[in-house]
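Data deposition worksheet. Section B asks for the primary sequence of the deposited chain exactly as it was used as input, without tags or linkers unless they were present during the calculation. Section C holds the resulting structure in token form. Section D is free text for depositor observations; keep each observation to a single sentence. Incomplete worksheets are returned to the depositor.
Section A, Depositor: J.P.
Section B:
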Amino acid sequence: MTDAAASNDKSRHRQSLSYIIGFAILCRIGLELFTHRTVEDFYITLRYAENISHGLGFVFNSGERVLGTTTPLYTLYLALLDFLHLNATLLGKITNIVADGASCLLLYRLGSNLKRPRCGLVAAALFAIWPVCLYWSVSGMETSLVTFAGLWFVVSLSVTDFKRMAWSGAMLILLRIDGAVLVGLGYLGLHWHAMEAGKDRIIIARSALKSIFILMLILLPWMVFATLYFGSPVPTSIVAKLQVYGWQAKTGFPNIGPFLRHFLKPQQILAAIGAFFGLLVVWKRYLPVRGALIWLLVYYAVMALSKSFLFGWYFMPPIPLLLFLSVIGWVSMVARIPKFQLTIERKSVSSH
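Section C:
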């Protein structure tokens, strides 16, 4: 392919991407205007934010230092909005809607980084209209921001951009503490990349350690504050859910049924089949993201096997990676059909 043709392709991709992002945002704005939907869990975070802005402290009830919100960064953001006498509920929703648009951009970036920009575009288009994403984007909760931060970390990981890995990883953990699993596996997974790097493996190891150090420095203020103020940076709500739902569970694995029912929907079946084959392709060819692939499997395994209640928003954070892998998987399967192989070969010859 000539430089001019490559430039034309990039221009078309960017134009298509702008349409996808615009459509994703407009869909969510329309959904908000039509439903005015706000999930009750958002009001827990909002109450913490209002108490902070009114000088009562980081508390749900005045005088009770209990960390009952799982998203300290989003709480502080809402507190700032309320302190400025802005509509924290509306702007919180708008922020999450914009985050979904940014996730579409990141999916294209991920595709470009892995030399599959068209797959990134298709994944972005699917994400723009995916029912689970639409449903939770206007809930008021931090779910779309968590999804964006996790995807930003994966995109940074795909090109081993250690500085952005530190910032995106810190943002993810401060938005939801369980994001530490993706961050930890992402860094651990870099050893495959280092093994293939030969002489550069020492440079990669040093850069990774430096990145982790920066990440810890970003997290340190919150970790110190939460430990001194609450006694622990781990939200009480997480411990409570594990204890209460574990105690109420009537079977050893109560979530397997709801988990399977979620994936028995037609679009979920197609996504899961494609993602399986896509994971095999990406695992073999793109070493830096292996940690993220392991996280995807661990995330779904924990959802299926955990005794904690399976809340709907738990399904959203891995969706961008699932859709991206699914598109790659379906493309790789279609490419194996003889008729399409011949078409691809002809295009390859004509491009040269």
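Section D:
The mean pLDDT is 89.
The CA atoms of residues 249 and 307 lie 6 Å apart.
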